[in-house]
């Protein structure tokens, strides 16, 4: 029988590839986001991590959740630090987090009704590359004119400490959970749902990114919106 983490990896392989192949994910990996879209990404991720970490902490006495309650892996504070740098002390009131409302509500539901399924979301958000941590930090800093590592802590570091070691510990902890086949399949199904949530976020941000690019093209010197005027002049 495959380990739980191998089952999750196989069960979500198609969804993970789809999410990572979105234009937004590719631009994120290259560090090519503008300030607006970067802040929107961080704000939505902060909402997700805050809800997940609260749910894990609330259910820390649950036998399937307690072993996964690893504050060393938590990223809510890292994201808050980045948003505070980018938006100032009142970051919470101005951070746009509407794109993950459905996922946050799902985590809240699991917290109350099916805490064992939180393990699937912990695997997606802490043990995969989907959220974007450790990607594009230097590129984003250059693109946005940020000094040092300010505003890009989340992208540069998976955790406050040794991210690789704690990620390996999480994977080992998941594999040590004693679950029957029905519970394993339920986690695989929930992991697919969690990956689709990240994919949906990337799709929404990607559509907005495309629209923003088109608007910039319209006002560039020689942009396409000027061509009809030039053509009219040529005909006069």
TrEMBL record:
UniProt-recorded name of the protein: Biliverdin-producing heme oxygenase
Record flagged with keyword NAD: no
SUPFAM superfamilies reported in the protein's UniProt record: Heme oxygenase-like (SSF48613)
Keyword set, alphabetical order: Heme, Iron, Metal-binding
Organism in which the protein naturally occurs: Archangium lansingense
InterPro entries xref list: Haem_Oase (IPR002051), Haem_Oase-like (IPR016053), Haem_Oase-like_multi-hlx (IPR016084)
